[in-house]
## 1
Amino acid sequence: MITSEYKQDGNAMLLQVKEVSKAFNYADSKTLQRNAVLRNVSIDIKDGEFVTIVGPSGCGKSTLLNIIAGLERPDSGNILVKGESKTSTDPDRIVIFQEGGLFPWLTVLENVEFGLKLSGVPQEKRRHAASQFVNAVQLSRFADSYIYQLSGGMKQRVAIARALALNPDILLMDEPFAALDVQTRDLLHNQLLQIHEATKKTILFVTHNINEALSLGDRIVVLSPRTGSIKREFAIGLPRPRDVQSPELTVIKRQILKELEEDFQFARRETRTQTIQ
Amino acid sequence: MLEEKHVHKQSSKRSFDVSDAANIALFLAAFAGIWQLVFLLGIWPTYLMPSPAIVVTEIGNLIENNSLSIGIGITVARLAAGFMISLGIGVGVGLAMVKFRGFGKTMSSFAVGLLTFPSIAWVPFAIIFFGFNDFGILFVVVMASVFSVMITTYSSIRNIPPLYLRAARNMGANGFTLFRHVMIPAATPSLILGIRQAWSFAWHALIGAELLITTLYGLGHILMVGREFNHLDTIIATMITIFMIGIIFDRIIFRKIEERVRSRWGLDQHSE
């Protein structure tokens, strides 16, 4: 019933994050403390949208992504995909991890085939499909290489190909390019935008890098580590590729920095009181 | 660039093998030379210090009257049987230890204790329980190696990087598919190390058990016969055979497997 509702309503959301909260226990020197990383976070994402979540480390970005993927359980709230509540992992929401998470015992092609193998696609067919995705990220020359033989940027391209091969509804990217050098990162940004353009895949991209968020997203969500909630959202209607130095983006960047500055001050105050104690 | 790297790797490996072989030949020649020299000095009588030539002749005799081939056959068969039983039980219990946390914790401290327990100390128990037969020998071999397999299985699986499991679960793996397609291959490099160690425990225990639990066949039996008739040449010939079997299993079979796994998993980067 809910599903049909989704189909009827063209404006319905592909992914809905509803009032998600999550706290972690951490042991202090004496007491067990509970630290809320996410408090009533709600995000709606339309089909085909490219949303970036920006925030400093420790703001719960990765936790949010893991909850959306079903790898972690929220304390409260829920995740809806096409109007259906989801609590477990599912190949319709694929995470691309910062470290890639590729399997070293498989070749590039076999890594890309992995998800298809799990869903029981026959060998011939999945090999054919996988090699198309390997081509799409321009790694066909390395199809039979093992993972350790690849550079960091190539590894992330394999991770993207592996995710795309499963034809997910949504790609969840957890700071996938954070460990790469600037040139490689720019190259991968362009490739990702081309893929987004060609496949119209919905992408939720988490990063601490404001420039990265500005150049990629249709929408930027600023997450605060202090409150564990969404501080502000910016819609960016500019065509891509974008120049992050342009006046429009500079204005937005300044606003994001201002939002985050309060959090940094808060964090500083907190460490100071801790030292005094 | 990648192909160049491969070519380089292969050529360096081949030259390494040649110099290796030369070194071994030189070492053996020096060893035999010193041995021959000591023999010629005549400090000890021939029955205490046979020459290399006498020992080689004895190896020929043992081959000719089939006692060596039967001995090797029986001993290797016992080794294989005992080791297979160890693998089966060890991997099975190891997996159960992963599955049931509490059992794993208790069993691992128990197994670590038994790991340091001298395998020879099982012999009196085995003799009384099973008697002087193959079952007694197998029992000692299994007890010597099963705990090593168990601990290895347990720790290899527990030490799999969680990221692999998350990525696989995310792509739809669970239960058996997660085990078969991710846990087993991810644990393989460390599993192989542990299994190689377990094999060497089994081998030590087997020869010890063959010496103490006397049956009619096996390399240990030939050693004991040599001792009873004061045939030091027989004893040395058998010792050389035991040494060679160890080399063949460890250096050739296990190392080849380990090298292949390590290079495939990209674990040999630091040595290049």
## 2
Amino acid sequence: MLTSAGLETMHFLIMTTFAALTSTVLAAITNEAETTRERCLYGLKTFGAFVGVGLVISWLFYFIP
Amino acid sequence: MTPTSDAPPLDPKQPPVAALAPVSLPRQVVVCLAAWLVPGLGHGLLGRYGRAVLIGGSIYTMVVLGLWMRGHLYSPFDLDELLGLRDVLSKVCLIGQMGIGVLQPILRGLGFGVSFEFKAATYEYGTYFLVVAGLLNYLVMFDVFDIAKGRKA
């Protein structure tokens, strides 16, 4: 059984999983890429943007009491 | 002298004309409905099997993870007034989760995501995994519509 206490330390893993799944769908349906290689690059960029922006926002929130 | 023509120049990056062929109107309706009811099925019916597997796999994985993290599945029968502004956030979540398609009421019927697990640390994560899974499927429906209309390869 999944315990709440165990998952409190897994926020980053959950965010990364969310970013990976969402970017996969967005890469599959994007209009900005036609070839498979372009779709993969688009997906990687989207994934990086999700994780990067998430880390920046969490770093900013660190200073808010 | 180079012969002139009104036809656009051949570009190897452009998809072949056959790939942009639109399908009939009834078939457009069917594939869009299929894309809503079963994520990935719309692309599968249009012959985009790779994309169908990626989309279906990702959305169903999000649903499973959302329930695993004790997310809540909203139901229109749980809301006090369906058309008013009261409890508007629940209605927004319900509209988002309805994008999952036929799986949403089936899972509710089977008893998954019925209770509110407020004390679970991952309750919010789980609920929004379920909401975003539905919202992504709405985007997928637009993509299926574009392919069926012949606007996209």
